Each structure stands twice: as structure tokens, then as C-alpha cells.
């Protein structure tokens, strides 16, 4: 109950209303005390006027007048003369004097709460102005015990009334919140749960109908999100189906092309000059088609595992790559330069980093070989304190502008004839698993440079 929105709203409403009532109680208890004393002054004045009307009142009648007024003595000042109008024995000395004529609100509030805090019965003198200007002032002496009891009784009644008002108000607000807020929110939650159970079912999409502006905006935002998500899920399903179909086609096509490769072996043995001249081109075309099919199948099956982080000696890793590439036959000499500082250690998955750097080096070397001119590929690295940077730069012809936008997109980023464009896409995916990125920082007639950014993060060297 208390953990719900309406339950907490109920408790907060009771608390806030009680605080408001307490703030009202402070001046009201002061006002009650003032009215109490003013009433005693008025009664005393009436009793003194009776004495003025008849100077011959006996002692019993005077005592009765004082008792009815609730005072011990009455002093009336008229015509600059101070007269003790009514008097009776005072049981103890006067403990304090309070002049109501010039008292400020702060003074009255302070006197009221000091009175509540003092349980002792004392005698006090109270001075006020007579009613209807029947003199300059009137002064009485009274006990504080009856005043304090009356204030306590009044305060208890006020607090009980405040509690009743707070609870009644809170219940009304609780019902209002349940109707105007909680019920619509539960409706939105219900739509979300139904949609989560079957996101492909368009019937689960919310239809905005809330009357509250903020809730309606939330419903409209949810409706837009659900609509877009449903469309995305449908598109994903279509793409998955299309991917499965492509994989099947590629598999069958690879088998067909493999058989065609066997036939080309026989064709190359032909003595016909035309056949012998065209056969290599046919073989190359079939080989590229087989490579594309195998790449497509490999990419469709690829589920790269999360990198296994360890400390990697980068210079030694690059040296292995250089040695592997030098074994590959090439019509043009390409220098591979390992410019990584010796002893440099980085944190990453050594196998995945090997594949990424190897891919970039091989692409750079093949680009230079395609020009028919000699060139060089340089692998370098640096540490800037926050990250490691690995660069692969070449002196090749650079990349055409059309390749820049889709450089890391599968099947679209290849700039080499017959290439599938999967190498850079896979490399970018592997580095992304390290929290980093692969970017083409420079390209032009003087060559290209790729940069691998590996942030250090936690647990670095």
C-alpha cells in the first residue's frame, strides 16, 4: 500500500495538511489567549460599573462580582485618577504583568507558548483598554491555571479537528489520484506488458486517450515507439529470412562454381588457341565468385566471441604479421616496416588484434601491388596516456571518394576488384569489442593511413 503511488500520496497529503494546521495553530492559540484575557477585562469592567452605580455594595456582593468576572482585583483609571474598584485577597505575589494595549503579534505568540509550557499556577496582572472608552485603562489580577487549562482544551480540539480534516482531505485526494492518475498509468503499464508479450501483434499498440496532458504525451510517445519497434522487428524478420535465403543460394552456388572449377582444369588443356587465351580469365572469374560465396557464408555464420583481454607485446605481434606477409608471393616488391617501439605492451585479445592489423596490412600491400609500382607499408604505435594508437600507413594510390562512406559496411566497402568488403567490417567489429574504433585518418595520391584507437579504461597497464 505505502509503496504504491496513491499510498504515498495519501501519507504525504496527511503530513502536509497537518503541517499546515500546525502553522495555523500557532497564531490561533495566541489569539485564543488574547480573547480569554480580553473577556476577563470586559467582565471586570462590567463589575466595576455596577459598583460605580451603587457605592453601597456589601462585601458578599462584591465577592460575587469578582468571582463571576474570574479575577481578584479590578483597577479602573478614569479622569487621570486610578481607582481600586473591586478587590479580594491575593493568595500569592504577582508573578508578571502583561499589557495588551501595545503588545505585538510576536510578543503575544511568545507569551502564549510560555504560558502553555509553564504548569505552575501563578498570579499575573493584565492591563487593557476599557470597552467603549469607559476610562483610560483597566487592570485585573487573575490566576494562570484556568487560562492554561482553557488553552490546552482549545488546542486539543483544534488538533483533533485538524486531524479529521487532514484524513478526510487525504482520502478525497487519494480517490482523485486513483481515478485521474493511477488508473491511466496502470492502463499504460498494461499496454506495455501486452506489447512486450507479443510485439509483432499490432493490436498491442497503445491508443492515446488520456485526458491529462502529460499522460497523453506519454501515451503518444509510447505509441510512436511501439509502432517504430514493430516495424523494425518486421524488417528484421524479413532480413533474417532474406539472409537465410542468401546463405542457401550462396551455398548451392559455391557448389556449382566448384564443379565449374573442375571443368576449367580440363579446358586449360585444350589445344585451341582461343580457348587457351580465354581460359585463365574464366578461371579467375570463377575463383572470385567462389571467394565471394565463401565470404558471405563465413560472415553469416560469424559470431565473434567477446575479447579475452591479456597483456600483449605489440612489437612481437606485428613482427609475426610482417613475416607472414613476406611469405606471400607478389609481383611487386613491397617493404613492410615494423615501427612499433620495442617492449611496448598493450591490453587486448592478441588473436583478434592480429587479425585486425593483418587485414589492414594485407589491404595496404595489395593496393600497392595493384599499381605495379614498389612501395612500403609502415606499422607504428604510440601511447598518449588514455589510449593506445596503432597506425597502418602505406604509399599506395589512396582510396577513391566513393569508397569512403561505406568503407566499413559489409559487401559495400571493398575497393579491390573482386573483393567482398568483409575484411574491414569484421576488423571494425573486433575493435569495437575492445571499446575502440578503426578510422581512415588520411588518404590521397601519397598513400593512406588507418588508425586503431584502443582506450585503456579500467585495469590497464
From TrEMBL:
Stretches that traverse the bilayer: 6-26, 158-181
PROSITE patterns: HIS_KIN (PS50109)
Catalysis performed (reactions): ATP + protein L-histidine = ADP + protein N-phospho-L-histidine
InterPro entries according to UniProt: HATPase_C_sf (IPR036890), HATPase_dom (IPR003594), His_kinase_dom (IPR005467), HisK_dim/P_dom (IPR003661), HisK_dim/P_sf (IPR036097), Sig_transdc_His_kin-like_C (IPR004358)
Enzyme class: transferase
Keywords carried by this UniProt record: Coiled coil, Kinase, Membrane, Phosphoprotein, Transferase, Transmembrane, Transmembrane helix
GO molecular function: kinase activity
Residue ranges, compositional bias (Basic and acidic residues): 448-461
Residue ranges of the region described as Disordered: 440-461
CDD domains for this protein: HATPase (cd00075)
Domain Histidine kinase: 248-458
EC number, as in UniProt: 2.7.13.3
Coiled-coil features, chain-numbered ranges: 215-242
SMART domains: HATPase_c, HisKA
Name the UniProt record assigns to this protein: histidine kinase
Lineage, top ranks: Bacteria, Pseudomonadati, Pseudomonadota, Alphaproteobacteria, Rhodobacterales
Amino acid at each position: 500500500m505505502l509503496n504504491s503511488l496513491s499510498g504515498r500520496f495519501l501519507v504525504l497529503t496527511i503530513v502536509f495538511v497537518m503541517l499546515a494546521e500546525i502553522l495555523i495553530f500557532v497564531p490561533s492559540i495566541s489569539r485564543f489567549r488574547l480573547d480569554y484575557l480580553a473577556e476577563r477585562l470586559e467582565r471586570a469592567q462590567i463589575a466595576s460599573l455596577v459598583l460605580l452605580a451603587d457605592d453601597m455594595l456589601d462585601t458578599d456582593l462584591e465577592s460575587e462580582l469578582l468571582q463571576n468576572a474570574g479575577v481578584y482585583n479590578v483597577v479602573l483609571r478614569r479622569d487621570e485618577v486610578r481607582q481600586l474598584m473591586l478587590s479580594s485577597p491575593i493568595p500569592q505575589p504577582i508573578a508578571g504583568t502583561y499589557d495588551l494595549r501595545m503588545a505585538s503579534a510576536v510578543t503575544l505568540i511568545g507569551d502564549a507558548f510560555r504560558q502553555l509550557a509553564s504548569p505552575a499556577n501563578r498570579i499575573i496582572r493584565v492591563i487593557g483598554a476599557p470597552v467603549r472608552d469607559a476610562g483610560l485603562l483597566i487592570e485585573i489580577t487573575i490566576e494562570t491555571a484556568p487560562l492554561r487549562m482553557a488553552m490546552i482544551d482549545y488546542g486539543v480540539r483544534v488538533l483533533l479537528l485538524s486531524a479529521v480534516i487532514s484524513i478526510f482531505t487525504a482520502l478525497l485526494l487519494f480517490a482523485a489520484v486513483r481515478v485521474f492518475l493511477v488508473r491511466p498509468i496502470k492502463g499504460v503499464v498494461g499496454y506495455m506488458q501486452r506489447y512486450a508479450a507479443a510485439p509483432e501483434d499490432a493490436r498491442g499498440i497503445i491508443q492515446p486517450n488520456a485526458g491529462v496532458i502529460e499522460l497523453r504525451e506519454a501515451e503518444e510517445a509510447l505509441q510512436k515507439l511501439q509502432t517504430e519497434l514493430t516495424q523494425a522487428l518486421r524488417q528484421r524478420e524479413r532480413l533474417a529470412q532474406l539472409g537465410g535465403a542468401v546463405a542457401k543460394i550462396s551455398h548451392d552456388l559455391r557448389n556449382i562454381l566448384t564443379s565449374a572449377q573442375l571443368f576449367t582444369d580440363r579446358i586449360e588443356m585444350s589445344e585451341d588457341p582461343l580457348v587457351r587465351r580465354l581460359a585463365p580469365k574464366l578461371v579467375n572469374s570463377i575463383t572470385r565468385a567462389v571467394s565471394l560465396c565463401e565470404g558471405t557464408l563465413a560472415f553469416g555464420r560469424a559470431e565473434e566471441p567477446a575479447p579475452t583481454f591479456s597483456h600483449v607485446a605489440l612489437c612481437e605481434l606485428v613482427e609475426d604479421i610482417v613475416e607472414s606477409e613476406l611469405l606471400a608471393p607478389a609481383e611487386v616488391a613491397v617493404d613492410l616496416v615494423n615501427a612499433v617501439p620495442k617492449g611496448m605492451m598493450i591490453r587486448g585479445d592478441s588473436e583478434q588484434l592480429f587479425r585486425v592489423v593483418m587485414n589492414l596490412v594485407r589491404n595496404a600491400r595489395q593496393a600497392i601491388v595493384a599499381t605495379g609500382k614498389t612501395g612500403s607499408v609502415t606499422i607504428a604505435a604510440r601511447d598518449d596516456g588514455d589510449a593506445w594508437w596503432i597506425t597502418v600507413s602505406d604509399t599506395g594510390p589512396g582510396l577513391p571518394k566513393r569508397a569512403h562512406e561505406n568503407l566499413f559496411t559489409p559487401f559495400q566497402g571493398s575497393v579491390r576488384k573482386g573483393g567482398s568488403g568483409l575484411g574491414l567490417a569484421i576488423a571494425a567489429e573486433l575493435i569495437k569489442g575492445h571499446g575502440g574504433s578503426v578510422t581512415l585518418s588520411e588518404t590521397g595520391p601519397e598513400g593512406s593511413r588507418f588508425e586503431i584507437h584502443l582506450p585503456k579504461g579500467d585495469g590497464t597497464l
